[in-house]
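[Automated response] Your request has been received and processed.

Submitted sequence:
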Amino acid sequence: MADTKKIRIFMTGVGGQGTLTATTLLAKTVLSQGLTVTSGEIHGMAQRGGVVESTVLIGCKSPKIGLGEADILLGFEPMETMRALPYLRQGGLVVSSTEYMPPLSVAMGKQDCPTIDDIKKAVSTCTSKAYFMANQSIGLEAGAVQAGNVAMLGALCAAGELPFGPEALEAAIKANMPAKIQAVNLKALELGVKALNS
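Generated structure:
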């Protein structure tokens, strides 16, 4: 097997969004391409509303991503995208949701919520390669709000930073997801690719 370029992907969202499901699906997609992959959950649990952070590393031995080391930041919730920015290397790629699932501290009025413009401004200080999409709305259009994560994975695969494209993700969905949810996720994948190119 040829030596693959190392790619470090940092994924973040809030509990109940399906961040870990998306992490597993992306890791299985990488594996299906004959590439070495390490993935792990760094922080958080599947409790609703808590922060969830995970990693997918292609061609790397360690599952850890230090500050300034992530090549790609995938943010399933915009505030979490902003919070995870210190992990992104200068010039890395950001794919982020524009739709909030505010954490408890914001919902209770203990913390202010930055605007999408604030978040885009913060991202622009790190990189010019950034895509923002309404993942929950896209998920609903596909048939299930959680499918918005697959739409974001589709956009990531279409962005040209990975050693494979959306077809590999499509094959992984067909190979790993229960038949009853495949159609919704395949539709979400298609919509995610379209959102990236629009």
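Summary generated for your ticket: The helical segments are 19-32, 78-84, 104-107, 116-124, 135-142, 148-158, 166-176, 179-197. DSSP finds eight helices and six strands in the chain.
If you did not submit this request, please reply to this message.
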